[in-house]
Every structure is written in C-alpha cells, then in structure tokens.
UniProtKB/TrEMBL annotation:
The keyword Hydrolase applies. Pfam families: DLH. Keywords: Hydrolase. Residues 27-145 form the Dienelactone hydrolase domain. This is Dienelactone hydrolase family protein. GO terms for molecular function: hydrolase activity. Residues 8-17 have a biased composition (Basic and acidic residues). Residues 1-25 are annotated as: Disordered. The keyword Hydrolase applies. It comes from the Bacteria. Transmembrane segments: none annotated.
Length: 244
C-alpha cells in the first residue's frame, strides 16, 4: 500500500465493540474524511493529502472496498457487494439513520477529545455524503460537508429527497443548524444521484445550508471530477469553522 506508507494505520472501536481500520496523518484541527465508493481509492488519498498539506489532522476510516484500488467496474462491484450484505449501511432505506453513524460519531468524539478546539470536521462523499450530516447530531462535529450525497439511492420521489436521517436525528440537526452550525453541500446541478435532497436541505436548514451548485452533470466534486470551486469552498469552510 505505497500510497498510504506515510499514514498511520490504526483501529477505532466504539462502546458497542464495533471496530473499523483507520488511516491518520497530519497536524492541526481534526477532519474525519469518509471515503466514497469504491473505497479509499488513489483519488481519495490524493484529496486527503491536500487537507493534510493545508494544516489538518485527517483520519480516514476504512468502511468497505479494497484500499488503494483505483475506481473501475471491478472495484465498484466489489464495494457494492460488501455494502449489500452489511448491517451497518443501507442503500435504500428512507427516514432512517445509517447504523454506522454511531461508530463515526464515536470516532469524531475521540478525535475532538484528543485535539481540542471548537470541534472536528466531517466530510462524506457520494454514498457516504449524508453520513457527515448524521455525524452532526454529535456536538463534536462542527463542520459537516456533504459532497454529492447520494443515499438513499434516488429511486422514487421520497428517496430522492430523503436525507438519510431518522426523525429524531433530523430534529437534532435542525436544532444545531438553528444554533449556528452550518452545513456545506457540494454537487453538480445535473447529477441525478443527488436527487432533490439539496432542496430538502434548503427547506429544513434554511440559511444554515451553504450550497455549492456546480455547472454540468458530473459527479465526484472533489476527486474524479474535481472542481476547483468545490475544493476552495471546503478549505474556506474548514478554515472558518475549525480555527476559531
């Protein structure tokens, strides 16, 4: 795993005994970067390195896929097969919070307890985009970023606008947003995978939802289809929220 040779591999185990590998590098305020499908790919690692170079401690949990496998049909199929049998993640359930959110919140709490400061950032991508919103339920997360959030998969009107949160978690997210915790969202306007959930976020969070709508119909705003406006927006958001 040459691309991760400079990263420290560890494991986080939460209070339920659930554990996942993690990769950590950097100094400064903490960011939990949750990889997209098919996993911690070279593109995700490259973006994580940019956050490290910008002065952040980045922790990448490994939730599925084969680490360092490039994006392709085989790696995507492998990751989807893992997700389909996982009890921690769901592709289709509406009005529910993904079970893995509890583990991610625990990881964020531990990172905040270690590093101090106002809190940590959480950045999810594609399949895990909404995970960052679910992590916001915990006070440790003060800078949630949703990059092209795509679950539940937008099959039908209800799922297309669903935020992947239980009613109780949505109420908590709305209360935190009303109290000043902003949420950054990134998407290409024509990306059908995002469905209508940006409209839902605007309706539910109001001015606390900061949306970046990029021109075109691409998908991966920070990696495969990287757009500099998205990259700059994330860095500015983390600078404002994590270095107070």
């Amino acid at each position: 795993m040459a691309l991760l040779d400079t990263w420290t591999r560890g494991e986080h185990v939460d209070e339920t005994g659930t554990g996942h590998p993690t990769y950590r590098r950097g100094e400064g305020p903490g960011i939990v970067l949750v990889h997209e499908i098919p996993g911690i790919s070279p593109d995700v690692i490259g973006y994580a390195e940019e956050l490290v170079a910008a002065g952040y401690t980045v922790v990448m949990p490994e939730l599925f896929g084969r680490t360092e496998a490039p994006v392709g049909a085989a790696s995507v199929a492998r990751a989807m097969a893992q997700i389909c049998v996982s009890r921690e993640m769901s592709m289709l359930a509406a009005g529910e919070t993904t079970p893995v959110a509890g583990w991610l919140r625990s990881l964020a709490r531990d990172l905040h307890a270690e590093l101090g400061g106002p809190g940590v950032g959480a950045l999810g991508m594609c399949f895990t985009g909404g995970f960052a919103l679910a992590m916001m339920v915990d006070d440790a997360v003060v800078a949630p970023v949703l990059a092209q959030p795509s679950t539940p998969f937008p099959l039908g009107r209800r799922r297309a606008g669903d935020l992947g949160l239980s009613p109780a978690d949505l109420d908590r997210v709305k209360a935190r947003a009303a109290g000043g915790c902003q949420v950054l969202g990134l998407r290409y306007r024509g990306d059908r995978m995002v469905g209508t959930r940006f409209e839902t976020l605007t309706r539910e969070l109001g001015d606390a939802f900061l949306r970046v709508d990029l021109p075109g119909s691409k998908h991966a705003t920070l990696t495969l289809h990287r757009h500099q406006d998205a990259v700059d927006a994330v860095l500015g958001f983390f600078e404002d929220r994590l270095r107070r």
